[in-house]
Design brief:
329 residues; mainly alpha; two-stranded antiparallel sheet; 2 strands; 1% strand; globular
């Protein structure tokens, strides 16, 4: 009981930290805006015109988008790790992100008149990639952790080849998709925010109902079956939810890797493996990690705006190698 209370206190503190980081991020930039002016602009009745434009039209939508995307990818990674029984599973390494990206790029470069179908295309591409990885990794004895990684590498290579082929074939249309390919939140305004918000809310609500199933499935197929759970149905349900959250994130801002790998590990070290606390902790940490990455990308290298996807790759790559080194498969 004491441990559970301590975990929830830590989670609450993390959410407060996310809120503070969001306010500070809104103020940081080429034009510094102090915290009182930020609060007055957001909650006040008579904000200054300049601050209102900077905050409400540019920085606030980008910050909220970073929080939502980070939370989505972190939840997706945590669920995939339960489904596949592999601590190295995440939307990027298992091919979900690359599958969704290839599908979205088809719409952006070949069928731009159907841009309203980008979320659907991303979901379909993610499902297709996840199905291939799952099928290749499945054995009679269960899912092989190392096979998941190898299958993910193969699917990533295949989707990367498709992306490269389309990039050459439609090079004249590629400039409009460059930022998206690198996972950039630059120039993402209210339109992108309002596009993803309804989907994200649905995914978050469904993830609440997935907690019990995730706790059961992580115990192993045999134990889950002994508890009366339909293992295959649970895997499909949790996989669909994980792919959905990852796919809508890809549809909004492009490829951002390693958040789904790093964040659940951080959350487990802090609050443990129980998904009742792991999932809300992963949500908060995912939002915080991506917000910090995006804020650093647009401020540390100013006037350049380095995409958050690139920074996460620089950080996540070495961390992935560390995990591979630490764990024997």
């Amino acid at each position: 009981m004491k441990r559970n209370t301590k975990s929830w206190n830590i989670i609450l503190f993390t959410y407060v930290l996310v809120a503070v980081a969001a306010v500070l991020s809104i103020g940081i930039g080429s034009v510094y805006v102090p915290v009182p002016a930020i609060l007055k602009t957001i909650f006040g009745s008579h904000p200054e015109a300049v601050n209102e434009t900077i905050i409400m039209d540019i920085r606030l939508p980008r910050v909220l988008l970073a929080l939502i995307i980070g939370a989505n990818i972190a939840i997706s990674g945590a669920l995939l790790q339960a489904v596949m029984g592999n601590p190295l599973a995440d939307p990027g390494l298992t091919g979900v992100t690359s599958g969704a990206s290839a599908a979205v790029l088809v719409i952006m470069l070949i069928l731009p008149q159907y841009t309203n179908l980008i979320p659907v295309a991303a979901f379909a591409g993610g499902i297709f990639a996840a199905s291939i990885v799952y099928a290749l990794a499945w054995k009679k004895s269960g899912i092989s952790p190392i096979t998941i990684i190898l299958s993910g590498v193969a699917v990533n290579a295949l989707c990367g080849g498709i992306v490269g082929f389309m990039s050459i074939l439609y090079s004249d249309r590629l400039p409009s998709a460059i930022q998206w390919l690198n996972g950039s939140l630059a120039a993402k305004g209210s339109n992108a925010l309002f596009m993803i918000l309804p989907y994200a809310l649905v995914g978050w609500i469904l993830s609440i109902f997935a907690v019990r199933k995730a706790n059961i499935i992580r115990l192993g197929d045999q134990v889950a079956a002994n508890l009366g759970d339909n293992v295959h149905r649970t895997r499909i349900w949790l996989s669909l939810l994980a792919v959905f959250l990852a796919a809508i994130s890809v549809a909004a801002v492009g490829m951002i890797g390693f958040v789904g790998l790093i964040v659940p590990h951080m959350a487990r070290l802090i609050v443990g493996s129980d998904y009742k606390v792991l999932l809300p902790m992963s949500t908060a940490l995912g939002a915080l990690v991506l917000l910090v990455a995006d804020t650093g990308g647009r401020t540390l290298f100013a006037p350049l705006d380095i995409p958050a996807g690139i920074l996460m790759a620089v950080i996540g790559g070495p961390y992935f190698l560390y995990l591979m080194r630490k764990r024997a498969f």
